[in-house]
Write a structure and sequence with these properties.
Layout: H1 2-12, H2 14-25, H3 28-42, H4 51-63, H5 69-99, H6 104-107, H7 112-133, H8 139-149, H9 154-179, H10 183-187, H11 189-219
Helix pairs in contact: 2-4, 3-5, 4-9, 5-8, 5-9, 7-8, 7-9
Amino acid sequence: MDTLLQFANLVLHIDKFLGVFIQQYGAWVYAVLFLIVFCETGLVVLPFLPGDSLLFIGGAFAASHEMSLGALLVLLIVAAVTGNTVNYLIGRAIGPKVFNTRIPVLERFLDRAALQKTHDFYERHGGKTIVLARFIPVVRTFAPFVAGVSQMSMQRFQLFNIAGALFWVLLLVLLGFFFGNIPFIRQYLNVIVLVGIGAAIVPVLIGGLWKMTRKNTNGGTVRGPNGNRN
């Protein structure tokens, strides 16, 4: 419990943490930001890292000349692209082996038809998913993994991976650069971060609940011999 509280406090006061880190360790802050963005996008076990707020706050520090804007943009874009690529390759390597297993316990839970549907979905809409997922915490961690599991082609994945990374990093870092040091925004940065996370996650949760409700409703509908609902 204490660990969760400490992590929540870190996320809510990430600007203070970065400020202290820059004062004490200087240029090492670039390595820390690179690792956090890389791990959040590259490792499915770390979807909780604060990527969005780090990008915005990094831009704010660049505006106050405590960091280099050019170096920050280049490093974060590379971290975002390589992180997604590693995540995709892990999914591509693990996915088929897991779904082709003949272990009785896993056979009961794995759905090969669902995997094929996922593959077909990514071939049709995977590009938009990879780009838009960049702006949704947690989802951006799992999207490249699922793309790999569904065997989305590497060329198509990389096209939208790079486009999404450029859009995500440039937008959030430059927003932080131009607006992050405005007194009102700086004062209520924690609230803004929470609102931003909520605005990204809530629609996804509502959409998921709506689909589950529809599925349960349709599943509970009784149909007659002629296929009509009773």
